[in-house]
């Protein structure tokens, strides 16, 4: 009984953390969008997609995958990198940097879509943007995907 209570409590806390992250990301994206359009009078949020956590893939990831080394097996990763550095000293500095980034989880980022209505010279338009955020929920990339085109928006002023 205690175990069931503990599991349900852990599940509830996990949901609270993810909803908190979703809320922080939504606020950051909305603030960035308002800055992007120079704080328009008529900007109404329509909806946000679910926050997705993704990871950048490095050249070392491909080598580790080929050697059948899974994520989280840091001792095996270090042994593999030492072996590869001995065989290919030209890649040693790159491998060490990438291994450090993998171990310290610096390669993660978040993805979010934001739909909103905006008044453009008297015409109300529905816009949709795709955002990439770092782990501190700062926008690193924004792309206008309103009409299927993948053009980056102008830099905020």
Question: How is the topology of this model organized?
Answer:
Elements: H1 2-36, E1 43-48, E2 52-55, H2 59-66, H3 74-87, H4 92-103, E3 108-120, E4 123-133, E5 139-144
Antiparallel strand pairs: 1-3, 2-3, 3-4, 4-5
Helix pairs in contact: 3-4
Low confidence ranges? 1-17
Distance between the termini: 57 Å
- Rg from Cα: 21 Å
Biggest sheet overview: 5 strands, antiparallel
- Helicity, as a percent range: 40-55%
- How would you describe the oligomerization state of the chains in this entry? single chain
Which whole number gives the mean pLDDT?
Answer: 84
The assigned structural class equals alpha+beta
Topology pattern, helix = H, strand = E: HEEHHHEEE
- Enumerate how many helices there are, as a single number: 4
**What share of the residues does DSSP label as strand, in percent?**
25-35%
Outline: elongated
In total, the number of strands is 5
Q: TL;DR?
A:
With 157 residues, this protein is an alpha+beta fold.
Structure characterization notes:
This protein has helices at residues 2-36, 59-66, 74-87, 92-103, and strands spanning 43-48, 52-55, 108-120, 123-133, 139-144. The chain has 157 residues and is α+β, with helices and mostly antiparallel strands. Strands 1, 2, 3, 4 and 5 form a five-stranded antiparallel beta sheet that branches. The chain is elongated, with a radius of gyration of 21 Å. The chain starts with a helix and ends in a 13-residue tail after the last strand.
């Amino acid at each position: 009984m205690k175990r069931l209570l503990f599991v349900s409590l852990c599940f509830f806390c996990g949901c609270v953390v993810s909803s908190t992250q979703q809320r922080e990301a939504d606020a950051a994206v909305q603030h960035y969008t308002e800055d992007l359009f120079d704080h328009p009078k008529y900007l109404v949020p329509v909806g946000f997609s679910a926050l997705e956590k993704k990871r950048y893939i490095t050249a070392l990831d491909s080598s580790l995958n080929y050697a059948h080394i899974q994520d989280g097996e840091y001792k095996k990763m270090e042994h593999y990198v030492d072996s590869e550095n001995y065989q290919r000293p030209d890649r040693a500095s790159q491998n060490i940097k990438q291994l450090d980034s993998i171990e310290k989880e610096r390669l993660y980022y978040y993805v979010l879509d934001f739909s909103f209505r905006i008044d453009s010279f008297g015409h109300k338009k529905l816009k949709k943007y795709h955002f990439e955020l770092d782990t501190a929920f700062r926008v690193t990339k924004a792309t206008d995907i309103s009409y299927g085109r993948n053009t980056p928006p102008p830099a905020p002023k």
